[in-house]
Structures are given as C-alpha cells and as structure tokens.
From TrEMBL:
Alphabetic keyword roster: Coiled coil, Cytoplasm, Nucleus
Protein family: Belongs to the NEMF family.
Organism: Armadillidium nasatum
Subcellular location: Cytoplasm; Nucleus
Coiled-coil region(s): 213-244, 300-344
Protein name: Nuclear export mediator factor Nemf
Amino acid sequence: MKKTFTTIDVLAIVEELRESIIGFRVNQVYDIDHKTYMIKLQKPDQKVVLLLESAARIHTTEYEWPKSPAPSWFSMKLRKFLRNKRLENVKQLGVDRIVDLTFGSGEAEHHLIVELYDRGNIILTDGNYNILHVLRPRKEGEDTKIITNEIYPIENARKAREAPTFEELEQAYNNAKDNTGLKKIFNPLLDCGGSVLEHELLSVGFPSGAKKVKNVEINIKDIHEALTKAQSNVREERKELEKKGYIVKKLVKRMKEDGSSEDTFLYEEFHPRLYNQHKELPVEQFPSFNRACDEYFSKLEANELDKKVVQKEREALKKLENVRKDHEKRLQELKGKQEEDMRKGQLIELNQGLVDGALLVVRSAIANQIDWKHIQELLDEAQARNDPIACAIRALKLKQNSITLWLSDPYDCDENDMLLDSDEEREHGTESEKMRPMAVDINLDLSALANARRYYNMKRQAAKKEQKTIDASYKAIKSAEKKTQQTLKEVNTIANINKARKVHWFEKFLWFVSSDNYLVIGGRDSQQNEQVVKRHLKLKDIYVHADLHGASSVVIKNPSGNTVPPRTLHEAGIMALCYSRAWDEKVVTSAWWVWGQQVSKTAPAGEYLTTGAFMVRGKKNYLPPSHLVYGFGFLFRLEESSIARHEGERKARVLDGPDNEFSSAISAALEKLTANSDDITDDNEVIN
C-alpha cells in the first residue's frame, strides 16, 4: 500500500495548490499527531483546510480529522508566526520531495518547508531561510545542520537531471546482476520515479516486472527512448494532461458475521495520471489529484483497520471453534472413561475367580511379611512356570495398595484372534472390541465383586459429570458465541474519518428558509445585527424589525429583486418578534419591513449610532399582529443520486383551501395597512 508522495505526486499537488489556495490567510493551526498538522485557511466566505504530514503528504482536505486536545509546542509556534498571514506562494524545491510554502511578504515573510522524503520534517524559517523552529532537528553530514538559527540549505535540493545517455543505460544494464528488474536497474538514473518508468517501459513493449536474463540481449535503444521521454517530458505532460486523480483498488475477501465471505475493495495506490500498468485494474477517478489524495488518506487508516479486522475476525471465529472442540474433546474423554470403567467392571465379574485368586496370593505374601522385592521375584518365577494367576498379574503397585491384572473375556475368542480383528471392527465399535483384553487395577482391600462395583460407581459418576459438562458446555459455547458476535461487531465498527459538511455562511446567524424558498437571516446579538445589515443587506433585500427591545434585525435575501410574497414577510416578522422581549412578556404586537435601500449606518448630524443600531428613512410597512409561535425543523442533505427524486418538493404551491385563504388574508391586511397613513411613517428613525 502506497503511503508517501513521489516526486511526480509532489509536482502534481503543488500545481493544484497554487491554483486553489494562494491568497488565503491562515486562520488557525492544529496538530493531529506528532507529525501531522492542519492549517485552516480562509478568504471572505470561503474556508480551506491544508493537511501536512511529515514524510508523507500535503493536500487540502474536506474531512474532519481528529485534533489533539491541546496544541503541541510546534503548533503554538506556527500559530505565533503564521496566523493572519497570507499564503503567497507554493513551490517545489528542485525535483526533490520538498514543498516550500511562503506566508506573508517583505519583513513579515516566513517559509514553512515540508520534507516528504525519508523520515521527513517540517521547518519554519524567516524570509531569508533562517531556521526559527524545526519539528525534528537533525544533521546531514558534517556541514549541514537542520537546527534553530541555521540557514536552511535550499541549494541542496535535488536538481533536475538530463535524460541518461545510451552509454549510461548500457553500462547500468551490464553492471546489474541477473534476474534484477529493469525498473530497479534504471530507476536511479531518473527523477520521475518507478511508476512513470514502468509506464514508459510498457509503452515500448517490455512486460510488467521484466528482468535482466542471463545471455539474453535487449534493445537498449527502445529503453533509451522510453526513459528519455519519461525524464524530459514529465512537466510538459502534466500541463497537457487533464488534471485528474486516480486511486488503484485491490479486491480482498472479508468474513461476515454468519461465517460467509464477501468481496470488498481496499485502496492500494494513488496517482496523478492513469498509468499503463493500472489500466486493467479496478480504478476510481477523481476530478483532481488533490481530491484523490484526500479520499485515499482519509480511508488509509480505515483500510489498515480493515486488514486488521480480517485477522481479528479469523481469530475470533477460531477461538470459538477451539472452545467447541475443547468441549467436544472433554465429552469424548468422559464417554471413553465411562466405557472403560464399564468394561473393567465386566471383565472383573467375568474373571471373578482369577481376580480373587490373585488377591489371595498377594495378600498372603504381604501377611507373611515377605519383602516386596522378594514378592516380585516369586512372581517372576511363577510367570516363568506359566502359572495362570501369575501370568495375569502385570504389575505390583504395593505402594498404592493395588495390583494390575490383564483380564480378557474367557467366553470370547483367544487373545491372538482378538489381535487379528479388522480395523473396520475397531472403527464401528463392535462387541468384541468392547471386551478386548485390558489392564485393570485391583484394590487389595476389596474383593473381586467389590472392585467391579467400584468401577461401576466410577462409571455412574462419570455419567453425571458428563451431563454437567454438557450443561456447562452449552452455556460456555453460547457465551463464547455471544462474545464472538460482539467482537465481530466491534471490529466491523471502524472509526472512519467523516467527511466534513460544508458550513454555509448564513449558519452563524439565526436563519430559516421560508415557505416560498427565500433565505431569511437574523442577528443573534447586536454584533451580529451589525454584520447582517452591513455585510449582507442589499438594496433589493427586505429588512424586517419590531419596535421592541432586543428584536433581531432580520433580512430576507432577495437576489432576484422580485416582489417578496406576503407569506415570507409574515414568517420573517414572526422571527423578529420571537427574538425580542415580546417572547418573555407574551406581548402580541406587529413587526414592520422596509427595503434594504432605506436602511443605512449614516447618523444624522450630531448623533451617534451604536453597534447594532441603524437609521431607517422612508415608509415603514407594518405587518399584521401574529401569535408568538415558533418551531424548529430538520434539514436533510441529499446525495446527488437522490436529488432528481425530490425535485420540486420545495416549490411554492398555490392551492384552493386554507393555505390560499391564509395568503389572501395576509395580502388583504397588508394592502389595508399600506393604504392607512396612520400605520406608515415617513420620518427618519433610529432603530436599535
């Protein structure tokens, strides 16, 4: 997965940034982590966020990146020197992966240098490139120091090279080892990077991943032609090409909660043009390289998490499977123990005489206080004489007060025949398999039948334990399944970086869209009242106010200059009244409106207008009294694909019925008030 800019990427992004953000001023600086910073830029009614990541990228973003709770020391330094300064220039130093951002001019000029190679760096300098602050102080050789109060060595930036000659290419090829990729052989001779080189090699017939093969000659002339084009025409091609961005995607399989898999695409690479090697791959096109970078890096963290999700899903499902297998294994062991104890009890009963005889012999030897070693010697001698009782005794476990007997079913075939039973019988658990000869421990304190009873009791205890294990296993597996489902939910809930909604200029004011689709704005306080009138009230707009303390200055935006419908005037009047003292005191009164050209900030001679106060000249058109009823609504933003289905929903409608009667009533009342000279004033008046 590609995570850093190449030289060509830097060239492309610098061109786009020059066209889009030069002239903006720095509003604020934030840090996302120790190497990633956001610079908020703004113009009147326009804002842009520039994202810088040391050693990786630089582009504008439309996404809401999480900011650090408290600004770092480097953010504070950038704020100190760059806030309110104008971005004057963006340039690439040589053909290196270094971007130089120039803020301010003259004595106030500063440079912010972003290094996108190796471990990267961000350096703040003055207009003479004297380093003021550096994110990562370092030394380059003996003479170059990137530290405070040193001069940043812009002359060390890599310069553009001429295209390699035929002889240089031939020498590089001959010096390379066999099985070395052509891209790896020739890339050090160029400035354009591996992607452009591979693109040009494909264009002259070399397959992707072509290598040097022993004793195989290649046409260096074709390579020279391709590399000359790649090196010399990079800038010209970029200017001629349509400026777009491309993201190459990769198909992977992901596990779903039900255990099935689904195909999903992960971002793999981003490029400023579509190269030959990517034309057969899934590719997403963007209107600009900057947009492609923004989309790619905003999803990069999610893509990384997606890869971890696949692994965590497998681990969670494997853990659940292991729990099931473990419980199945325990149940099998308990069932096997029951069968074994049952067989041992049955074999003791079938060989009761033999067991009692063995018990009598051993007990007698112990009762006569014969040494345990001598007992073993006597046993070995008896076995040598093929004594049936001695041959049945396999081990003396006198310390445990027991002996081990080898018992078989005396009514079944002999032991040799048993050993020749087929594997198929063993698999299907035949009756003969159940009664195979086996070693049985016999307690010396118990008789044969008592020992058989002991094994039957052990079998019953194992059966009870099996049932308890089954019950516990059911609960444990259910709990494991629940935890697995929760884990799958958690790993699938990835914290994506959400795309920031564009905040419109009018959202800082009180605002609504009237029933006739007019934008109506009002000030929240005297400062905003001042802004609403001075910045946004045009000659053909409508100014609405009420003669009450605290009433908001309301403006109906009327860009078309047409007559504003009575319903919109009435709604704007309600807004002016509700944001006044009338709301608290429950006073029903009337608002009034005038044209924007009647409102000014010019006070009469000898008078002074305070903040939020204006002079209204000419007639004031009073609106009918209205109830203090105010509501709030939700405004939903639609996807572009959904706009067509909702077209016309906000279109003003004139219907026969209550709406039409209400509109007619308002119109009639307005006409009546306009005709009544008592309700219209021609005096100049200062409003607050």
